[in-house]
């Protein structure tokens, strides 16, 4: 059974609060753990909070629609970019093969791809889908994510 829920993100209000409220309501309803909730929040925020795409003149009269879809084995969050037009920066963020952790774009790409199980990009529909497999909430996937993020943070500590 598929369940669908939508949230329009208004740029005239605090974006982070709107995302947190939407995801928290969903995670509470489906009894999703706090660590998985954090993964969803961070991945969504990294996709939505992309300064390369959202210039000040672009934000004024635009919105983002987050469409949540609960499928039998996954939670799907599709970010539909209203009137925004994707530029090459957002396309490269999602599709680029490189993960240069020394750049902001590389860090965002690493976080998005590490925290979401699948990232789907549809340029013609102006949307990005983040999929989180609910069977992936198991200990093995959590441990893999923990190790990946620990490695990232440890490499950053050495540079400081």
Q: How is this fold's topology laid out?
A:
Elements: E1 3-10, H1 15-29, H2 34-48, H3 56-59, E2 63-70, E3 74-80, H4 88-95, H5 104-115, E4 118-122, E5 127-133, H6 139-159
Antiparallel strand pairs: 1-2, 2-3, 3-5, 4-5
Helix pairs in contact: 1-2, 2-5
CATH-assigned fold name: Heat Shock Protein 90
Overall CATH class: Alpha Beta
Distance linking N and C termini = 49 Å
Mean of all residue-level pLDDT scores = 77
How much strand content do the residues show?
15-25%
In spatial order, strands of the major sheet run: 1-2-3-5-4
Shape: globular
Task: State the fourth-level CATH superfamily.
Answer: Histidine kinase-like ATPase, C-terminal domain
Helical fraction equals: 40-55%
Overview of the molecule:
- The chain has 160 residues and is an alpha+beta fold.
- The protein has one domain: 2-Layer Sandwich (Heat Shock Protein 90), CATH 3.30.565.10.
- 47% of the residues lie in helices and 22% in strands.
- Helix 2 runs antiparallel to helix 5 (104-115).
- The longest helix is centred in the last third of the chain and has 21 residues, at 139-159.
- It is globular, with a radius of gyration of 16 Å.
- It starts with a strand and ends with a helix.
- The mean pLDDT is 77.
């Amino acid at each position: 059974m598929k369940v669908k829920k939508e949230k329009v993100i208004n740029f005239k209000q605090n974006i982070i609060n709107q995302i947190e409220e939407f995801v928290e309501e969903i995670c509470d309803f489906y009894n999703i753990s706090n660590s998985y909730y954090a993964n969803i929040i961070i991945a969504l925020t990294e996709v939505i909070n992309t300064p390369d795409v959202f210039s000040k003149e672009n934000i004024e009269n635009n919105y983002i629609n987050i469409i949540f879809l609960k499928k039998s084995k996954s939670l799907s969050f599709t970010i539909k970019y209203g009137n925004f037009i994707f530029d090459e920066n957002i396309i490269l963020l999602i599709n680029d093969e490189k993960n240069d952790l020394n750049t902001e774009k590389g860090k965002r790409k690493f976080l998005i791809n590490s925290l979401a199980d699948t990232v789907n990009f549809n340029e013609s529909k102006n949307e990005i889908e983040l999929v989180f497999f609910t069977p992936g909430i198991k200990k093995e996937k959590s441990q893999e994510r923990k190790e990946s993020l620990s490695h990232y943070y440890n490499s950053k500590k050495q540079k400081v």
